[in-house]
What we know:
With 129 residues, the protein is mainly alpha-helical. The chain has helices spanning 2-12, 17-31, 42-56, 84-96, 98-110, 112-121. The two termini are 17 Å apart.
Amino acid sequence: PLQAALNEWASIKLEKPSALYSEHKAAMAHVWRAGIEIEGNKELAMKVNSSWWNLLTSYRADQPLSSSPGGLPNNCYSGHSFWDVEQFMWPNLLLFQPALAEAALEYRYARRGVAEEKATSGGYRGMQF
């Protein structure tokens, strides 16, 4: 992730801020082209859409990363990723955003060897992320 960020920074640092802002607005509009409608319950709709927005902005189709249980702005849980991503979040991504679902699974797949070593070193079978 750090190298990808540095590469992206190198490619955009000479662009005008106004151009970057316009590109950002267009990208966010694309992500949020439709919310989830819940007829008759505005409060629930607001909560569902807030959660959905946070989920959508935690993934990128072009980078295989998992979402953090604490979100992007902090380092809680020391970078761990938990099974609840696949249990609760992934099915929704698969249904509505298949490219993001693929990136989320690629994160696990790409790290399976290290996860197996970590489990073995702790006396466990399987994988430990």
